[in-house]
Amino acid sequence: MGDYADIRTGRHCAFVLHAHLVFVTKYRHPVFGDHHLSRMEEIMRDVCADFETELREFNGEANHVHLLVNFPPKVALSKLVNSLKGVSSRRLRQEFPDLVRHYWRANKLWAGSYFAGSVGGAPISVLRQYIEQQNRPV
């Protein structure tokens, strides 16, 4: 991360924004096996694509998942998170009937809270490259 190749551009900006997200199952119950996690990664990749966000890394264990996302400034992380949790919960319930017993009160798979942390930051070399590009005549 932090490399020139990570710089993405929008109509009016250049950016490198990464967030580390962690979702925990309700009551931290051990819910997922490898086949659940594999399918969840596919589902979450699709949701990220809908938000023009790249799922850079994904891993998880029986009671939580970690995501590293590269997102544009127009994306509100809270909306991305709500969609990731909601869509994955709904699809997993439909595709894996064995998981239904883990859906606690009001059909909740995930705990209500989540962790979001900023990751990295643009090194001076990346900022310098951006500034130099702004000074070039079009």
UniProtKB/TrEMBL annotation:
An MF annotation (GO) of this entry: transposase activity
GO biological processes: DNA transposition
InterPro entries xrefs: Transposase_17, Transposase_17_sf
Location of the Transposase IS200-like domain: 14-134
Pfam families: Y1_Tnp (PF01797)
Entry-linked NCBIfam families: transpos_IS200
Protein name: Putative transposase
Organism, as annotated: Nocardiopsis mwathae
Lineage: Bacteria, Bacillati, Actinomycetota, Actinomycetes, Streptosporangiales
